[in-house]
Amino acid sequence: MKNYDKYKPGYFPPPEECLDWVKKDHIEKAPMWCSVDLRDGNQALIVPMSLEEKLEFFQFLVKLGFKEIEVGFPAASETEYEFLRRLIDDNLIPDDVTVQVLTQSRRHIIKKTFEALEGVKKAVVHLYNSTSVAQREQVFKASKEEITEIATSGAKLIKKYAAKYPDTEFNFEYSPESFTGTEMEFARDICNAVIDIWEPTPQQKVIINLPATVSMSMPHIYASQIEYMSKHLHNRENVIISLHPHNDRGTGVADAELGILAGGDRIEGTLFGNGERTGNVDIVTLAMNLFSHGVDPQLDFSNMPEVVEMYERFTDLKVHPRQPYGGQLVFAAFSGSHQDAIAKGMKWRKSKELHQWTVPYLPIDPKDVGRVYEGDVIRINSQSGKGGIAYILERDYGFDLPKPMREEVGYMMKGISDKAHKELSSQEIFDAFSKEYINYFDPIDITDATFKKVSTYKSDDGMIVDMRVDIGGDIFEVTAEGNGRLNAINNALKKTPYHFDYTLISYTEHALETSSSSKAAAYICIEDSEGVQYWGVGTHDDIILASVNALVSALNRENRMHKFVK
Ligand SMILES: CC(=O)SCCNC(=O)CCNC(=O)[C@H](O)C(C)(C)COP(=O)(O)OP(=O)(O)OC[C@H]1O[C@@H](n2cnc3c(N)ncnc32)[C@H](O)[C@@H]1OP(=O)(O)O
Ligand SMILES: CC(C)C(=O)C(=O)O
Ligand SMILES: [Mg+2]
């Protein structure tokens, strides 16, 4: 590819080795979550949300369990301002939820921000200014001192305004915006200058938010930057380190996770990662990653289909079918070996009554996020195998196919899907199975059969059958004896003028629990003189007649290959 030499790694590693985080292998507890859907997410939408949409989204975020929500940039527009006023005036902010607002370090913007906040019980005022080399040179055309002055003057002004509203519990947040494009020593110094002004205490901690405004490095560099800041910030015990990764390199989640290991206490992100450009870090993935490691994420995504639906409605964006945890296809297995393992894993789990989730290929139980196995997990197309197909026939219709029959049925379904070039629904699978194997009475149809037990000199389990059979319109009434019911039927068939060439290979039966009216299913395999095998399935209220139906089905399938002749 041309032009690669236009680029160079433009990140700023810390001036000392910061690799303590490497020694940690897991995150022990959920970070503090702050949703920025209504601000960073909103500012990236083609059409920002209306006031009513923001209200509904806010209430949904509260329902999911967010305790901190950045509700907007009140100085940005009338809608933003009025939205905050509505939340406050109509008392729509629950007591345990803190709203957060963003402001630039400009006098009229700060003033407007505090006006918008008047009467709120608690709020985080979030001040930002860009600190990166690129922005200093190109946008602000300012020295480090001048950039620091933007931050500190804003910090002072905010502190002054906050003092005017003693009834509000204010917390302050500062972001050295474009942190990842900033020399770490400068990021440290500017944050410390702000911290020194705000003088955090245990009762009034300060949030220092370290954004990967644009992600510029691999995640381990970001983690080292966070560790560096964590080690060098003033008054660290009263400072909450917040992370705000974006996803330019596709590593937003990795940045956040490693950043937490490195000292991050709080995460700012959005549902499914909506936000500027490639988006903010996806909080759904982060929270569910914790959940899948047995950590309570402190957010409730147990109804993921609703989360997807609300997100799509508010943002007018689509959740990608492969989006972790939320995508339509993330619990679906089409391929044979995956289906086989999942079906066996599910069975294993049921039989052992396990609480711990260990099913192969499924990182979490889809039911925990409100997804159902039916139609969600095992889906059939031409890549599928016998395991998955047998699983669907058993799960949805109660047919527990004998093992040797599964391969044949599997290949048949693959073939149908391949030819039609489409996925097969559970109903289509059952219809094809039923049409091919179950109670297949053409041209042979045993229309009546009554059995009598007979005692022979050897045993008393002999059977006599009086049977009426219709073979392509020819009706025969025959009586025959056998050492069991099936054997009696075999012998009766052989008494008709037709030459039946088959040997009974296997017979299994079971009660049907899921299926319609029939109570029993029987499976019979016969073999012709050339060694070709034919399966048939019979269902009936009466298990004996189910087995007769299975035999007739197998015979009719054989007859399709080579016609029985008189
Ligand atoms: C990484 C982020 O997501 S940051 C948040 C970004 N979000 C938004 O910008 C959405 C809301 N913003 C807005 O509605 C508008 O930009 C407003 C209302 C904030 C400001 O509007 P305006 O003043 O009309 O325009 P604009 O944003 O272009 O202002 C640019 C000026 O602000 C300065 N500026 C930009 N950021 C800051 C800051 N954080 N602190 C102080 N000054 C700043 C610029 O240097 C520029 O200065 P100049 O006029 O001397 O050249
Ligand atoms: C305002 C800041 C925190 C921001 O959104 C970013 O840097 O991405
Ligand atoms: Mg951002």
TrEMBL record:
- Which keywords fit this entry according to its UniProt record? Acyltransferase, Amino-acid biosynthesis, Branched-chain amino acid biosynthesis, Cytoplasm, Leucine biosynthesis, Magnesium, Metal-binding, Transferase
Q: Where does Mg(2+) bind?
A: D40, H244, H246, N280
Where is the region Regulatory domain?
A: 440-566
Known pathway: Amino-acid biosynthesis; L-leucine biosynthesis; L-leucine from 3-methyl-2-oxobutanoate: step 1/4
Among the GO molecular function terms of this UniProt record, one is: 2-isopropylmalate synthase activity
- State which Enzyme Commission number(s) the record gives: 2.3.3.13
Cofactor(s) the protein needs: Mg(2+)
Looking at the record's lineage, which domain of life comes first? Bacteria
Gene Ontology terms: biological process: L-leucine biosynthetic process
Q: Note the SUPFAM superfamilies from the entry.
A: 2-isopropylmalate synthase LeuA, allosteric (dimerisation) domain (SSF110921), Aldolase (SSF51569), post-HMGL domain-like (SSF89000)
Q: Which reaction does it catalyse?
A: 3-methyl-2-oxobutanoate + acetyl-CoA + H2O = (2S)-2-isopropylmalate + CoA + H(+)
Q: GO CC terms for this protein? A: cytoplasm
Looking at the record, the residues that make up the Pyruvate carboxyltransferase domain are 31-305
For the protein in the UniProt heading, the enzyme class is transferase
Q: Where in the cell is it found?
A: Cytoplasm
What InterPro entries has UniProt attached to this entry? 2-isopropylmalate_synth_dimer, AIPM/Hcit_synth_CS, Aldolase_TIM, IPM_Synthase, LeuA-like_post-cat, LeuA_allosteric_dom_sf, LeuA_N_DRE-TIM, PYR_CT
- Chain's role: Catalyzes the condensation of the acetyl group of acetyl-CoA with 3-methyl-2-oxobutanoate (2-ketoisovalerate) to form 3-carboxy-3-hydroxy-4-methylpentanoate (2-isopropylmalate).
The record's note on quaternary structure and interaction partners says: Homodimer.
Under the heading NCBIfam families, the entry gives:
leuA_yeast (TIGR00970), PRK03739.1 (NF002991)
What is the similarity comment for this entry? Belongs to the alpha-IPM synthase/homocitrate synthase family. LeuA type 2 subfamily.
What is the name of this protein? 2-isopropylmalate synthase
